[in-house]
Structures are given as C-alpha cells and as structure tokens.
C-alpha cells in the first residue's frame, strides 16, 4: 500500500489558511506572526510533514551541501579538520560530501570538475602533485565559492585558512638549538606544495641566523611524508655513516618511521638524534619515546574554513586567515642536561 506524503496543502487545509501562508511560516518569513508560525509548525509535526528538498533547492538555487576535498582521511589531521567543517555545516543546516584526492592531481581534477551543480561551496586541501589548479577556478567562475585550508595555491581564486608554517618551523629549529644541537637536518616534503616550502624556509632562515652551517646533505626532500618514506630516510642516514644531532621533520608520520628504523639499529632518541615533527598527530604522545611536534590546530582550521565558506555564501569578501602554531615539547627532543 502506498502511503500519501503530507504536503503543505494538507497543513493549509487543517489550519484554514492559504498555502502561501504555510510556505512563508515554514520559511520563517517576517510577515507571519510568531503565534501562527508556531501553529503551522505544530500541525506540520503532527502530520509528519517532510519538506521536499528538491523543490526547496529549485526555488532557492541552493543545494544545502558543501563539498570537501582532502588528500586522505587516514590522517588524524584531515579527519579532525573534517570534523570541524561538519560541525559548522550542521549548525548551518548543510550536509557535507567528502572526497579523497589521494594526493593525485588527476583524481583531484576529476573530483573538482564533478562538483559544479552538486554543491554550494567547496573546501579543499590540494593534492601534493598538483601544479595546475585551474579546475578550482572553474568553480568560482560559476558562482561556487572555494576555500583552501592547510595546502593552498596562489593561482586559485579562494579564501584561505592556514597555520603559520614558517613560524612553526622557526619554533622547532630554535628549540633544537636550545637543546644544544648544532648539526640539524631537515626532512622536507615535495617542494611543489606551499606548506613544505614555508617549513623549509623557516628551517634555513633559523639555521643561518644562528650561524649554523647547512651542508648539501642537510636537506632531504621526501616523496611524501609517510612512515615508509621516513624509514627510507633513516636508512639513508645510517648508510651515510654520519648522524646529525637532530632532525626537524615536516610531518609526524615520516618522523615516526625514521624513529622506529633508527631505534631498531640501536640509535637512541633523543640522546643520539633528537627529533621534532609537524602536525601534532595523536600518535605523538603514545610512542615509547613521545614525539615533539608543532600543533596545527586541525579542528580549528576546519571549523574556520567552514565558517569562511558560509560567509562567502552570504556575500562576504574572501579573506586569508593564518593560525598561530604551538610547539608541543616531548621526550624526543629533550637533550639539555643529559
């Protein structure tokens, strides 16, 4: 048996008012009194009225959906940022569609091009191997605001929410210098991505300002910031026969991989090699040797990106927000007094 769906006509008939009055009451129109709005809502609840979202979307031009594109959801940083985005979207009465680029430019382009007509706005962190970001501008060209967080691109017409990656690197390297480290290496991410460029710049500037040399072997550009790449880097250090006093890693998972590989080879952390990571993933505090790391405040970053996309939908101008980082010091970098 087919059950008839309640419509606004049924509510209007029950109350003895016009359909347009019911429609305005349900949309909280100021021309309808608070008392009548309450009566309409009560009857709507009694009759189990469910708004026709398709009709509402056609009328308003809004889909009440935000698209989110991230490199992956297997990192706490991105899952926490998504939580912030979803919390803000929920408050605004919006749904969220989540996509993973898996750091593939081809996959990211396909996702972004598919979003026009599906969503009202897009929040994204760009793929690591992306160099041409024109497909994001195709969204803004059709009136879909774009907000980039964490990883951004200057050629994209978008609002941005980032952490001060440069300052985070400065804090990490200064801390290592304060611990008595003089030979400090840097595990860098692919330099096509702005966050890893800024972290490398912070490292280099701080080393030079402290009068410490940076040899050709000091900077290692990894293929990514995974645990496997961190292990590969540690093997590279071991094979070189010369270990630095410390390594500043551009990502926590690479630091984790390197720490485990070095410790398996009998290298002590921090006594032989001190370490600082970046992101402050939850795993940092649970390691046998807890990892010092720069906190990016991922939830806050996601929530602010969500707020920004809704501000854009309300006609606010696009802006750039930079969050101040914080260095969380743990055992992996504490060498002073040892």
Tally the beta strands.
12
Helix content: 40-55%
Order of strands across the main sheet? 2-1-3-4-5-11
Please compute the radius of gyration using only Cα atoms.
26 Å
Keywords: DNA-binding, Transcription, Transcription regulation
GO molecular function, one term: DNA-binding transcription factor activity
Pfam family, one: Peripla_BP_3
Protein name: LacI family transcriptional regulator
Can you give a write-up of this model?
This protein is an alpha/beta fold. The chain is built from 12 helices and 12 strands. The chain has helices spanning 8-15, 19-26, 34-46, 53-60, 76-91, 105-115, 134-141, 165-178, 194-209, 227-240, 252-264, 298-313, and strands at residues 65-70, 95-100, 121-124, 146-149, 159-163, 184-188, 219-221, 246-249, 274-279, 292-295, 320-323, 326-328. The protein has a 6-stranded parallel β-sheet, sandwiched between helices. Strands 7-6-8-9-10-12 form a 6-stranded mixed β-sheet, with helices on both faces. Strand 6, helix 9 (194-209) and strand 7 form a beta-alpha-beta unit. Helix 1 packs across helix 3 and helix 6 (105-115) runs parallel beside helix 7. The protein is elongated, with a radius of gyration of 26 Å.
Compose a concise summary of this entry:
The protein is α/β, with parallel strands linked by helices. It has twelve helices and twelve strands. The protein is 43% helix and 16% strand.
From the structure above, extract its key features.
single chain; 338 residues; six-stranded parallel β-sheet; six-stranded mixed β-sheet; 16% strand; elongated; DNA-binding
